[in-house]
Amino acid sequence: MSSSTVTARRLSAAALAAAAIVGAVALPASAADHARPDRTKVEISAVQYDSPGRDDRSRRSLNKEWVELTNTSRRTVNLDGWTLKNEDGDTYTFDHYRLEGRATVRIHTGRGHDTDSDLYMDRHNEVWDNYSDTATLRNDHDRFVDDESWGRHHRGHGGRHHGGGHHH
Ligand SMILES: [Ca+2]
Ligand SMILES: [Ca+2]
């Protein structure tokens, strides 16, 4: 195999996955190009797209619909200006929020008071489709960071992502 394969192995799995999804990120042409292995590592770690129980658009129901982001690095990441978007283009923009190293934040759909561990979109309608949707996270330069799909878009990597929903 060529030397680019060796270089590729040094990239983290996350970086490779991101590169595969955007499809536009070129791997280093030579070993002289650094692979920048220490990029910020914030990922969508969980999605509860189907709020448990009846979806009645109440604040309580909307806030049981959420997305969690985890900072897998040790360093605090400033999420100011980052966006979280659904397939319809409904967008939540982070406002002066800093996610500490190894920390997880839950972004609820409904109204509420933001804390270090919980943020609220203040929406009056659900944002994540129960059947099929994609949550996409982009940074303040509108660059792809991570996404998570479910339903018919599911890319088939093992178990299903049923947001804690139980069938009755
Ligand atoms: Ca939903
Ligand atoms: Ca439900």
TrEMBL record:
SUPFAM superfamilies: Lamin A/C globular tail domain (SSF74853). Keywords: Signal. InterPro entries: Lamin_tail_dom, Lamin_tail_dom_sf. Gene3D superfamilies: Lamin Tail domain (2.60.40.1260). Residues 30-152 form the LTD domain. Residues 148-168 are annotated as: Disordered. Residues 152-168 have a biased composition (Basic residues). Residues 1-31 form the signal peptide. Pfam families: LTD. The keyword Signal applies. This is Lamin tail domain-containing protein. It comes from Streptomyces doebereineriae.
